[in-house]
Amino acid sequence: MSLKNKSVVIGVCGSIAAYKSCDIIRGLSRLGANVEPILTNGGAKFITSLTLQVLSKNKVYSEMFDIHGNYEINHISLAKKADIIIVAPATADVIASLACGRADDLLTCTVLASNVKTLICPAMNSNMLNHKATQNNIETLKGYGYKFVIPDKGELACGDCGDGRLASVNVILSAVEGFVL
Ligand SMILES: Cc1cc2nc3c(=O)[nH]c(=O)nc-3n(C[C@H](O)[C@H](O)[C@H](O)COP(=O)(O)O)c2cc1C
């Protein structure tokens, strides 16, 4: 399968699993996709924009209000460019924001401004994931047509064991391919 001529916008959020977005970006690129990363403020605490830029061979967007020479509005141009949006890792915070229709950072604003297929790959502590608030937010987003890649069970970065590990890179890549077809 191939993602040739497809643009994938990937939102990278503030989770220890942010480093795994590097392998997701490489995998998407190998499948032929043009990958456009959006790094949230939380995500930038865990991984650098430089790394994502080198791996994607594209500018990494973080700011909503930086408009350069071509006067493109980042969230609108990214929303128009995307054939698919993937949020990996997706934090409880971003999932909550999306479920409320918030648009106070570049990632949430881009998702809201887009009508393409959106794949959310949660990663968080088990209690955060299983909290009724997060589960309700996930159900709300499913109701809007967003697809989810179920997180794995296992050892978590915080030392707990349970649900909440970001799904494997291969599972996420297969989900993207299946989604684009
Ligand atoms: C060490 C550390 C690890 C964290 N890991 C996660 C995580 O895996 N999932 C999550 O939902 N939040 C996690 N958080 C909390 C988020 O980073 C925090 O909610 C942040 O505001 C999210 O920003 P963003 O969603 O805009 O990227 C973590 C915080 C710290 C300090």
Q: Short summary of the structure?
A:
The chain has a single domain, classed as Rossmann fold.
Chain-wise SSE layout:
Blueprint: E1 7-12, H1 20-30, E2 34-39, H2 49-56, H3 74-81, E3 84-90, H4 92-100, H5 106-113, E4 117-122, H6 126-130, H7 132-143, E5 147-148, E6 152-155, E7 161-165, H8 169-180
Parallel strand pairs: 1-2, 1-3, 3-4, 4-5
Antiparallel strand pairs: 6-7
Helix pairs in contact: 1-2, 1-8, 3-5, 4-7
The structure holds flavin mononucleotide (FMN).
Flavin mononucleotide (FMN) binds at residues 13-17, 40-43, 91-94, 123-124, 128.
Main features:
two-stranded antiparallel sheet; alpha/beta; 5-stranded parallel β-sheet; Rossmann fold; 8 helices; globular; binds flavin mononucleotide; 181 residues
Name the CATH superfamily classification.
Flavin prenyltransferase-like
Q: Would you state the CATH class?
A: Alpha Beta
Count of the domains: 1
Question: Which strand order do you get reading across the main beta sheet?
Answer: 2-1-3-4-5
CATH fold-level name: Rossmann fold
- Backbone shape: globular
Instruction: Count the DSSP helices.
Output: 8
Task: Return the structural class.
Answer: alpha/beta
Order of helices and strands: EHEHHEHHEHHEEEH
Spans of at least 5 consecutive residues whose pLDDT stays below 50 are none
Number of strands: 7
What is the mean pLDDT? 95
Could you say which small molecules are bound to this protein? Answer: flavin mononucleotide
Round the Cα radius of gyration to an integer and report it. 15 Å
Helix content: 40-55%
**Based on the structure given, which CATH architecture is correct?**
3-Layer(aba) Sandwich
How far do the termini sit from each other? 9 Å
Largest sheet: 5 strands, parallel
Q: Strand percentage, roughly?
A: 15-25%
